[in-house]
Fold these 4 entries.
Entry 1:
Amino acid sequence: MPRSSLVRIHLAAAVGALALIATFLVSSAVTELTGSAGDVHSLRQRIVLGLPLLIGCLAAAALTGRRLARNSRAAVIRRKQRRMQVVAAIGIIMLVPCALILDARTAGASAGSVVIALEIAETLAGALNLTLLLLNFRDGRGITRRRAPVSRAPVVGTGA
């Protein structure tokens, strides 16, 4: 696959993952603060339904990023790879289980302290993942800027 296609796929997957995580976080906060119990449960169901899309975006970003990096030993590439490992671990260990448990728990009438604790933990873990992905996005933009060819100014007034 040509490098330009990999870059486009990588960018689309990264932007998609960032947008989904930000949407999950903001909609959760707004719904928790202003919505009814039914609204919260409806949102939790939608988050669970959106998880495959988010996981696909994250996997595509990670795989295309690894392919683009090839065997680079650059410090910025290693940082991006370590961050993606942390993002994946937080997602697998914390965020997916929280989403599934909260979907099941919010179906009942009472929220309870367990649900509140899970919501707080999920929000903090989601914010951490969003921060790590934004740092990766920033570093990726820096890599792209360094790779961009330098455009030359046109020569003006060369005639006699």
Entry 2:
Amino acid sequence: MKRTILFFQAALACLLVGCKQAPESPRLQDEVRYVDPFIGTGFHGHTFPGATRPYAMVQLSPDTHILGWDASSGYHYDDDHIYGFSHTHLSGTGIGDLGDVALLPFSGGDSIKPVATFKKDTEKATPGYYAVRLDNFGINVELTSTDRVGFHKYTYDNPKERRVLLDLGHILQPNWGHKLVGNEYLFVNDSTVEGTVRTQGWAHFHSVSYRITFSEPIETLYQYIDGNLRKDSLFLRLNTPDDLKFHYKFCGEQQTTVCKSGDLSCRYGRCREEYAGRTAGMGFRCYTG
């Protein structure tokens, strides 16, 4: 079966200028192998197994649980569905929030909100690394991260059906009053989008800005506004309280697609320069520690 790889690189950059990190010592690498990120993800531990680092701005992890108390971290060990891979998460709390800027690779189908299924024996998690097989879509997913950058690697069984969902209406615990209150979106060019998502939940006034850049042009774009497909023409700029979802489809002949997403909370000049510097290397490697 012909296989192709979709690399997705996501970065949530903080407002502070980060310092270069010192190389990991052999002792640290030895200690990391004893860590099990799945500890606490069952019962009511409310932790998540995704890729992150100590004190990092990025917690890149699958969201398997949306409603109720066990959605506090977005993940529960007993689940077998994935709604998206979002970039911010709480751990060990009694109430949920965050789950910002969710993406999900998928193949085929015409669902506005595709949902992935998986088996527990395909999941793997070590510090700074998470992997899973999306059975219904035929996609292998790998995630890793640095302090401010998250990387996605998607390997598709079907190279002609490489699609990615950007879900800007993704909310944890909407049945507890958490809600979307604002969406700004800008289609910068055929490989770059940016915007700001505003939500109200445990944090009454929460916003995350993002910039997503693909290494190849998007072949086809489907734009859904509050569940309705826009058929006549696409808005290049949106400022709305409505749920926004975008389906990006990539050309079947291109084997590798790289994408990076950064937090642009200050929105202008210096932030974009810092974002570009942090994500200059788009290769996939595992970051631990």
Entry 3:
Amino acid sequence: MIMKNATRAKLKAGKAAIGIRLDFSSPYVVESLTGIGFDFVYFDLEHGPSSEESCQDMFRAAEIVGLTPLVRVSSYDPGYVDRFLDSGAMGIIFPHCNTKQDAEAAVRAVKYPPQGERGAGGRPLALSGMPIADYIREANQETMVITMIEEMEALKNLPEILAVEGLDVLWIGRMDLSVSSGIPGKLNDPKIQDAVKRIISEGNAAGKVVGVGAVSADRPEQIGEFISQGARFFSLDTTAILRSAARNILQNLSTKVS
């Protein structure tokens, strides 16, 4: 039996999915998210120090609390990607997807033949107890391919990227998009807002789920704004949530103890 990807199922049903980003290693933090209501947790190995080995324990913690474990990798190399999938990741987030060739490489790295080139093996297969042909068929259905649109080059090639079969989510990296546009950090600039609206509109028209990144923990209502535009995949940052919560607690205390 293979673990079902509840996040993918939710998106397939037309609903929005909200997860949490972790850029450090802590199975305990993952476990502490039980019952809160997040759909997935993603481990950021592009911008964080987590290792393949530490991810295994966090995958197990995610499985225990019912969160879909995803990994944001730093490379499209199939051998590198395969090690996370074989340890229990149910989806891979590929940064800087700028061309049709990038998108095709992402699909090839995640999917078994005939859709891709992933090699058979690893913990999920061993624990499934399934004939390998059945496992491959179900794994190809349950594993997610998420590509990040975060550079101006990707906007130029957007129609070709959207034509690639096997992409589950196009995730807009607004911060890097602002850097690529020469206006770093100005996420409310009309240039960035127009780009976001275009990606959402064209993505939805192509039958793709579109997500928006860099949602502030201090302004979670932004998620509702992006949902109204047609986006359905979001995450909040663990460190930002901790800082926001601590700041709010101290501000509330200061009015009572001063």
Entry 4:
Amino acid sequence: MALPTIVDREEWLAARTALLAREKELTRARDALSADRRRLPMVRVEKDYTFTGPDGPASLLDLFEGRDQLILTHFMFDPSWEDGCPSCTAGADEVSRGLLEHLHTRGTTLAFCSRAPIEKIQRYKDKRGWDFPWWSSYGSDFNVDFHVTLDPAQAPVMYNFRSADEWAHSGNPLSIEPGTPQEQPGDSVFLRVGSDVFHSYSDFARGTEWTGGSYAFLDLTPLGRQEDWEEPKGRAESVRAARPDFAE
């Protein structure tokens, strides 16, 4: 196990101060990026999607719960599965009542959405002890239209803003057979203006990391995420694959 170099306080302070300068650069860059994200144009959602919750059917507008903004996390849960995705489960475990309330004070609703029927969602939600809103998009085009259910038989495949051809040319083909849908993680953000709903932002793949807290905290530590892609190598005694399910 390769631990950090041991130095005296003065040498540590010099190294920490040098890193602080880079952290401040990153903070300013992240602030600028967030500002550009807020400047993105938005698209009116024209299709009438129907979701199902514990109390019955709902529209996309209903999912806002009367607030101005909606962050919808696409939780991977295929209708044929009995349990939800382990990685999505790990992220959902970190959603606290305090987080939801803090977002509510800023006029923002955080909810989850999956393609599984509401009966399976509710059973799994009860099993995990969660109380956040979780909707079923079963029977609608919502997941396909927002590129988190990939199936060439239903629509041209696109994930993380790349087409299937672009993925193939990158050396990482998606390899999805028509008629065998593949679930993917992501987040979609919507803004309500009166009764009109607009899609403003989506993220996928590693872009979803910043809607979960554990990675942000682990990135502050000497051992980091303890995943096999990280530098420096050998830092953690036991490394894991880059699967954010936090399983033991």
